[in-house]
């Protein structure tokens, strides 16, 4: 199995998963309590008006026609109108998407940076207190429920010592001027992104430390040491270089989880993003909105899964060279 | 053949020697030597004990005992530790029955206890007055507040005073004279700072001739001697089940005390420390027959600003009890969700691995697809759609968490089915089902067990996050719900860390304990893991 066929297979799976999720989405929002027509159609409407509405929403079509229309419109990001705001769901999502992406990217880069550096640091200080501390802190941060850490940080930094904003993506009203606005947004970003770093650095640090230690026990490291190379050189030139591929894979592999976790972060910090939109829409039984948000999140998870698979394929010699092997 | 006792002894000794000879340690013997694992097990044991003995440990019903103290009251022990909370009142609930009152009355009036529940009420008997028409003593009678009869708000659903005829401007009946009054007093020692609120509730029945006029008045006398008229009523004729309710949050009381809407009655009434006197005055003018007043025990309460071990939440419900009962729910959800997930995962993995071919292909593709589905969003959507109940949450958690186990069990099955004992069983004609159940399953058991242990905390944490997001069962006290309440109902603005920390720490220690156990189990089951750490 060469890399290309591997890639095609993964792509096929991505499309399959998308198809399954879309179908699931379609069925789900038709079997659930309180079907869409009852939400839209006012009981005071005349019979003609009701029929006209049903026709407009395509509720009279055979179920397969509805299904195809639904597929077509979702693929074009036509998600219908929100029950609550009567605005197109996609334009509402478009407003929120940048916020989610900003939070996501910042969180991700800082978590990976902090986690990987701590992991390397721990591996370099094997057997000392520094290593034990990093490992302990990492395990602890890994075990503590994430939303609890976030709530705690919010309570301490937002309420006890109110130095950071407690909710939102920017001040209301937003400050004038590009730079002031930028600073304001950064200021609002610190708590959500920072708390995510606290939650997430543990697994990164532990993983990096473990792979580093494994690399350091390899023969070529012994050789390098026997040659009389500096400790730093061995660490950063030889060991780190060999553990980068699995870490890069990990970066991509943790993408889907990070997308999923955004819902909780956004709802705790009242972040004006897609995850919170999904939660609000679901709790308010705003079905088109919930469906649209879920579709968007699922799509991004599928895409990040695909990226992870590609990255995995690129670094795994068995797949790259084409020796086959089960995933 | 009878065995020689000596040989028997020797055999015995040999057997003992054989058993003391190095033999593979059992799982438990290995586990016992892991301090981390034992700590984890100890913590879990504590949780289990708390869950089992929840009714004994928790003093209150976590969901139904409301208004135990003022909203978001701090823990009672704070009063001894932090100066900010020193002197705050605990909840005071008095039920004043027959023996609690100090009575001042004239000879003619007789008072007897009235059977009522645990505590006796009072029955006051006032004989009829001789009716000298001349004396109409209106100065005795307090003008009744108009507000009493028209704007009474009864937050506890007490029946309103529809039968009370407090219309003081109605034409006076002639021929009545005042009896001597009966005055009841109860002294309440109050040595705390002022409370946020207090309330009084009384129920009475008056049995009197139609033209009798009976008045009841409730006053509070502060230590410095100021008298506040909290409530009064004047009834004509008989009254069945009359009730009076005084609440410091009530507008009626504010008007009566002459303070503005935004002032607190407690600022005026409960500003001092010392002996307060609750005074009730009964008076009747009845020319044509005796008046009997039946008074149930009078309830007087100050909602505490400190309460219990962990304070109360926004509804005045005991947080400690919620926490204790939350342990039950958490363990039950974690165990059952993990168990179902392991059962599904094991069956799928074993069937896919053993049967192979198309079955394997299809099942593993299902696993792939399910693994690619974003868990949290789908749990949110499904949780909201299928109704918020513990059962649904358990099922959903299980349905979206068995895939990893299926993969592991499948690969284990793949290697097991090549082993000779399976071949032998196959050769002797055992069916696939039999081989799976009695050869493959027992050999995957340790693996399954390790995965069960590892799944429990993640199920508990996921349930907690769902509850926290407002998708939990509203009828059940879960830790996630306590956290959600503290976030939603003012725990943060009031800096009520005692509301936020306990459920969070409970979750943390439980999941930490399972991580410890999981690590130790892994070290025993996977030798590779042992080398590394």
Description:
The complex is a heterodimer of chains A (327) and B (533). Chain A has helices spanning 3-31, 36-40, 47-56, 63-75, 89-124, 129-143, 146-160, 178-216, 219-226, 231-253, 255-268, 274-283, 287-315, 317-322. With 327 residues, chain A is mostly helical. Chain A has a domain at 89-283: MetI-like fold (Orthogonal Bundle). In chain A, helix 6 (129-143) crosses helix 8, helix 10 (231-253) runs antiparallel to helix 13 and helix 11 runs antiparallel to helix 13. Chain B is an alpha+beta fold. In chain B, 46% of the residues lie in helices and 17% in strands. Chain B is built from 18 helices and twelve strands. Chain B has helices at residues 5-20, 27-32, 35-52, 54-57, 78-81, 146-150, 251-257, 265-269, 319-355, 357-372, 375-385, 390-399, 403-416, 420-427, 432-468, 479-488, 497-525, 527-532, and strands at residues 92-96, 102-105, 110-114, 121-126, 182-190, 198-207, 213-221, 227-236, 239-247, 274-285, 291-295, 298-302. In chain B, the strands form two sheets. In chain B, strands 1, 3, 4, 6, 9, 11 and 12 form a seven-stranded antiparallel β-sheet that branches. In chain B, strand 3 and strand 4 (121-126) form a beta hairpin.
Give keywords:
heterodimer, A: 327 residues, mainly alpha, MetI-like fold, 14 helices, B: 533 residues, alpha+beta, seven-stranded antiparallel beta sheet, five-stranded antiparallel beta sheet, 18 helices, 12 strands, elongated, disordered C terminus
Instruction: Report the end-to-end length of chain B measured between terminal Cα atoms.
Output: 57 Å
Q: Determine the structural class of chain A based on helices, strands and strand pairing.
A: mainly alpha
* CATH top level assignment of the domain at 89-283 in chain A: Mainly Alpha
First and last CA, distance of chain A: 12 Å
The average pLDDT score of chain A comes to: 82
Low-confidence regions of chain A: 323-327
Shape descriptor of chain B: elongated
Regarding quaternary structure, what we see is: heterodimer
